[in-house]
UniProtKB/TrEMBL annotation:
<dbReference type="Pfam" id="PF13707">
    <property type="entry name" value="RloB"/>
</dbReference>
<dbReference type="InterPro" id="IPR025591">
    <property type="entry name" value="RloB"/>
</dbReference>
<protein>
    <recommendedName>
        <fullName>DUF4276 domain-containing protein</fullName>
    </recommendedName>
</protein>
Length: 223
């Protein structure tokens, strides 16, 4: 019985993260592979092709019982109107609540936007992305660079260079969570940093929550 109580306590204390992707293939495949390859504990990857505001609403519903300590909703700016993205950002802010002084409870929601689309982040793993490309141009470039599967262009190539994520941070302008007002940029690099350097660390849960925005404004820049 003592062992059972101890195992339950360990499970309850584990820091958990939900990644809800708008892209049911490219984004989902990228984060699923990242979490698996880096063996990042406590992270669940799901996807649903909804507009940003509705996707945030779904994330909140999925976390009704506060199973997750942090929820990241990953979307493209794409063709969505600024009003929709602003609503998604407001929903994230409204749903977030701090933990108690003892570090109990609380949950944080963040909107992770790539401009114009996730393929810009993929392309940045091998070359600089600065110009205001259209979605079609960025997707074509990712295919030309063989970053996506030649036959299934919405899936990552088998040999996609995940390890180049720090290079990608230099090659594509970084924006804060919820920001979408540049012609090209992303906050995915902040999230990847957070998953690898904070979630996959020995910090206690409270410290992990406190660092959730450090990667948005004060994360160590790749050298």
């Amino acid at each position: 019985m003592g062992k059972l109580r101890r195992s339950r306590r360990v499970r309850e204390e584990r820091f958990t993260v939900l990644l809800l992707c708008q892209g049911v293939r490219t984004e989902h495949d990228y984060f699923r592979r990242l979490v698996s390859d880096k063996r990042i504990p406590g992270v669940r990857v799901q996807s649903d092709p909804l507009d940003p505001a509705r996707l945030v609403h779904k994330a909140i519903q999925l976390n009704r019982d506060e199973t997750y300590d942090a929820v990241f909703v990953i979307v493209d700016k794409d063709e969505f109107l600024p009003e929709n993205l602003r609503e998604a950002r407001r929903k994230c802010e409204a749903a977030s609540k701090p933990a108690s002084k003892k570090g109990v409870g609380g949950v944080q929601y963040r909107l992770v936007v790539t401009i114009p689309c996730f393929e810009a982040w993929l392309t940045a793993h091998v070359e600089e992305v600065r110009s205001p490309y259209t979605v079609q141009q960025v997707q074509r470039k990712a295919a030309e660079l063989r970053l996506v599967d030649a036959r299934k262009k919405k899936y990552l190539a088998e040999d996609f260079p995940l390890h180049n994520w720090q290079i990608a941070r230099r090659n594509l302008p970084e924006v804060s969570y919820g920001q979408f007002d540049l012609s090209a940029g992303t906050s995915v690099g902040h999230l990847v940093w957070y998953l690898q350097e904070v979630v996959h660390s020995n910090l206690d849960n409270r410290a992990k929550v406190e660092k959730i925005d450090e990667n948005g404004s004060g994360a160590p820049r790749p050298k």
